[in-house]
Amino acid sequence: MGDRPVFELDHKTPLQAAxxxxxxxxxxxxxxxxxxxxxxxxxxxxVSGTLAILGYDPLEKTVARGVVEALGCGMKxxxxxxxxxxxxATLDEKGLIVDRRAGRIxxxxxxxxxxxxxxxxxxxxxxxxxxxEHRIAVVIRGPGLQDCVSGSDPGDRFHSGIIPRPIKPxxxxxxxxxxxxxxxxxxxxxxxxxxxxxPVNLKRVSKNLxxxxxxxxxxxxxxxxxxxxxxxxxx
Length: 235
Fold this sequence. Notes:
Elements (H helix, E strand, L loop, with lengths): L13 H4 L3 H9 L16 H8 L11 H8 L9 E10 L5 E3 L9 H8 L2 E3 L2 E7 L4 E7 L33 H22 L2 H8 L7 E8 L8 H4 L2
Antiparallel strand pairs: 1-2, 1-5, 1-6, 3-4, 4-5
GO molecular function: phosphoglycerate mutase activity
């Protein structure tokens, strides 16, 4: 627990000056150790670590982050839908990424999501929900879809000043992968057109704030049967 010395507390930190009978008892009687939630030598991701804590074997059961994000945003995912994690992002007039988090936007995110959700392209519906700050979830619903595609988010490293990552099928021989990639490409382009004119973004620009004029997607996944927590853990 990080803290700083305070003049009024005789240059002690608040933690040093506080009366901490419970923490002191835990320190005296508790035990410390290390655990390998997945397997020795394997660094746990957010998903695999959480699954292990809940009693699942993350080497046998896994779930894509896109699905987790969508469920966390309150979205329903049907069998066959493809869900993505995503960000609100800022692109310049040349289509280059200025900020892949749109200045960590907080205000107006539900209005932005509402403006682009429900788009229909080639027999599918694409829904968007706002998460926390710059985070969003995108769900493509319809026939002939599969999650074997790359997203447009280039990730944390070396992303400023480049175009969004091309959305490509990971299996060019799979018609479902090709279709899903094409649909996501079309949707992201359509979203940019709508977001560029949105009042929330026009207001942000007038205040010299970064507009959320694009979305970047990543970590697609599909829903599948998952045993309830009570089955492996007894809860």
